[in-house]
Amino acid sequence: MSSAILEGRSEYYRQLESAQRGGLDITAWLMWFLGCLDKTIENAEGKIAAVLNRARFWERVNQDPVNARQRSVLNRMLDDFKGHLTTSKYAKLAGCSNDTALRDIRQLLGRGIIVKNEGGGRSTSYRLASTAR
Questions:
Q1: Coil, strand or helix: which one is 55?
Q2: At what angle do helices 98-110 and 68-78 cross, to 10 degrees?
Q3: What radius of gyration do the chain's Cα atoms show?
């Protein structure tokens, strides 16, 4: 709740000052406070859902563990990954050669952890599968 109040700090102080200078009716303050509480709960639910999704993902993947490079790239894809994964992006993220990146990608494809996007050739890209084996 404190982070939501900090985010809307100016509105918080405006509402607080208005409630203190007004009469006994604190309806506006309560409406603002409950709205802030509602946003906080929604944000918390989203974060919890993301954590549970990540935990389920790794529970499935770790039945047959992946190597350190794969783990690093998959964690990036689970976070705030922009666009789709390509072999060259994988190589840069994992700090390996394109050949090693392609081998790792093929292993992940074979296990159903990632899937190939439409298209191909030089524009071949991959994304996380909805369910990993």
A1: helix
A2: 70
A3: 23
- 15 alpha carbon, distance to own chain's centre: 33
SS3 66: coil
Model's pTM, two decimal places? 0.70
5-21 pLDDT, tens per residue?
888 888 888 888 888 88
Q: What are the sequence ranges of the domains in the chain? A: 2-58, 66-128
For residue 34, give both structure tokens. 């409950």
CA distance 95 to 57: 24
Sequence-separated (6 or more) residues with CB below 8 Å from residue 89: 83
CATH numeric code, 66-128? 1.10.10.10
Return the pLDDT at 80: 76
b/e 52-74 (16+ beta carbons within 10 angstroms → b): eeeeebbebbeeeebeebbeebb
Phi and psi based region of residue 126 (left: phi greater than 0; alpha: psi -120 to 50; beta: remaining): beta
Helices and strands (H, E) in the chain, number of each type: 6, 2
Average pLDDT for 57-62: 93
Please state the rounded mean pLDDT for residues 29-40.
Answer: 90
